[in-house]
UniProtKB/TrEMBL annotation:
Organism whose genome encodes this protein: Adineta steineri
One Gene Ontology term of the molecular function aspect: integrin binding
GO BP term, example: cell-cell adhesion
Annotated protein name in UniProt: Integrin alpha first immunoglubulin-like domain-containing protein
Recorded GO CC terms: external side of plasma membrane; integrin complex
Length: 130
């Protein structure tokens, strides 16, 4: 059996937030024999400068039989039409009791003078309020 575990499935590589610690990649592929009972633990890390803190991190696991011999041994256990599983890891947010986050940021600007004349205007005052 071969399985592939992909972290942050919906993100392009530049925007991915979660990685496997030992490889610094977001995809892990493993092979093992069906006669073995195996449990794998993985250490993950999250980037420090994560911009998207609202959408959950989507994990996807795909499995496939490694050879035709495996398909003859366990045809009833593994359904090739249902070989993908998705899991979402929510990011904890403090968005109130309904967990709906609505940004409330306002930006206003003003400047003085209204018209800047090259060579005549010595100062420009710009106010930005967030």
């Amino acid at each position: 059996l071969t399985y592939e575990l992909q972290l942050d499935k919906d993100k392009n590589p530049a925007d991915q937030r979660l990685f496997f610690r030992e490889s610094f990649k977001s995809i892990k592929k493993r092979h093992f024999k069906m006669s073995d009972r195996i449990c794998h633990d993985y250490s993950l890390y999250m980037k420090d400068d994560v911009n998207d803190k609202l959408k959950p991190i989507r994990l996807q696991i795909n499995y496939m039989l490694s050879s035709k011999l495996d398909a003859n041994i366990v045809p009833s256990i593994l359904d090739p039409t249902n070989s993908t599983f998705d899991y979402n890891i929510p990011i904890q947010k403090d968005c109130g009791y309904d967990d709906i986050c609505i940004p409330n940021i306002h930006l206003t600007t003003s400047n003085w003078p209204d018209v800047y004349k090259i060579g005549l205007t010595k100062k420009i005052l710009l106010n930005i309020n967030v």
